[in-house]
Amino acid sequence: MAPTTDALAALRDIHLPEAVSLWPLAPGWWAMLLLFLVLAASLYLVSGWRRRSIKRAALREIEAVQHDFGSTGDLSELAVSLSCVLRRVSLARFARAEVAGLYGDDWLGFLAESGKGTGFPADVGVSIALAVYAGPNSILEPDGDAWIVAARDWIRRIS
Q1: How far is 127 from 139, CA to CA, in rounded Å?
Q2: Is 112 exposed, middle or buried (0-12, 13-18, 19+ CB in 10 A)?
Q3: For 21-77, how does the pLDDT look when each residue is reduced to its tens digit (9 = 90+)?
Q4: Angstrom distance (rounded) from CA 137 to CA 152
């Protein structure tokens, strides 16, 4: 082979690669996106399951309280039990700083405002609050069934 006299003329110019594009994504980014979506969906499902489990447990407690009330008929004990269940559900469902220190009219106002739609009936809340501190036979109006219905409806509405 005969050497060419002008070897530099035979060289080609430098060819740069194309600029890196953001689209289409590399397979690793697709995997991370899929992982993020799965994680977000699982967090959503777990939080919904937790809310429903609090609701189920509270409704089971209301059923037990109703059964105890059916056997004893003690309105004072019913008022204490319902008040405890409503407090525990409120502490589990809302911020502790928002609920823990409430009592009296503030507590009844919270119950009335926290339920979606119609709030906790004011007359039921007042009668439960009065019955908590009353003796076993000092309550004139036996409206325990209305208390149970109101508590059950409130738990269903907030969860």
Answers
A1: 9
A2: middle
A3: 888 888 999 999 999 999 999 999 998 888 789 888 999 999 999 999 889 888 888
A4: 25
